Amino acid sequence: MLLAQHPRARFWLGAVSFAESSVFPIPPDAMLVPMALARPDQAWRLAAICTVTSVLGGILGYAIGYFLFEAIAEPILTAYGHADALARFEGWFQRWGAAVILIKGLTPIPYKIVTIAAGAAKLDFAVFLATSLVTRAARFFLLAALIRHYGPAVRDFIEKRLMLVTTTVAVLVVLGFLALRYV
Question: InterPro entries under this entry (predicted)?
Answer without folding.
Answer: DedA_domain, VTT_dom
